[in-house]
Write a structure and sequence with these properties.
Length: about 210
């Protein structure tokens, strides 16, 4: 874990020895619309958030490289219902994500971006609520616990677009497609689970 965190720090802040006039730091936060794909069916989006730091190095007026370290809440929600019962379950997968994006500024602060992302699992939990009503007898249960058999590392590929104002305020939208099977059980080859996240962000470059 220490080696992974060290690599993450180098990926984002290792540009500190370049021309300081071309290197800018900032912060960002925003909302996540997360779900899980692969062999999982009927998963709903889990509403979450992300927050963290940014380092951007511009090669010239048009092109640049941006690294980030973000805390990101992801996962999915599931709903089941039938005659006399209903159940809702939420998978809470929280990550320390380290995306590195190549950016191209099209015109007047508008940019597009793409690049890989390393994710380090910080927490994996579930919550559920169950209700049942048969013959006038009602049962309501709820609980939480740890999700097992989830891989501690995730890799994804991101694409997005953004707009940066002259005063440093910026806005972005990004889609993150998980490339790794998160299933770490004995049946990982038979049941694939992937992350998928849409992010809407607001940030400020100092």
């Amino acid at each position: 874990m220490k080696k992974l965190l060290l690599c993450a720090a180098i990926a984002v802040f290792g540009l500190s020895n370049v021309n300081a006039q071309e290197l800018n730091f900032g912060i960002k936060t925003g909302v996540n619309f997360a779900t899980l794909g692969g062999d999982i069916e009927d998963a709903d989006m889990r509403l979450g958030f992300h927050i963290g730091g940014i380092a951007e190095y511009k090669f010239n007026e048009r092109m640049g490289l941006q690294g980030e370290v973000l805390f990101s809440t992801q996962g999915a929600k599931y709903d089941w219902s039938g005659e006399g019962y209903s159940e809702e379950e939420t998978w809470k997968l929280d990550y320390i994500n380290v995306p590195v994006s190549f950016k191209y500024y099209i015109v007047n602060g508008f940019s597009v971006e793409a690049g890989p992302q390393l994710g380090i699992l910080a927490s994996a939990k579930y919550e559920y609520e169950y209700s049942e009503d048969f013959g006038g007898v009602s049962v309501n249960e709820s609980g939480e616990g740890d999700l097992e058999d989830i891989k501690s590392i995730d890799f994804a590929f991101n694409v997005g677009a953004g707009y940066k104002m002259e005063n440093g305020l910026n806005f972005g939208a990004r889609f993150s497609l998980g490339l790794m099977n998160l299933n770490d059980s004995d049946y990982s080859d038979e049941f694939i689970v992937n992350n998928g996240v849409i992010q809407l962000s607001v940030g400020y470059m100092f």
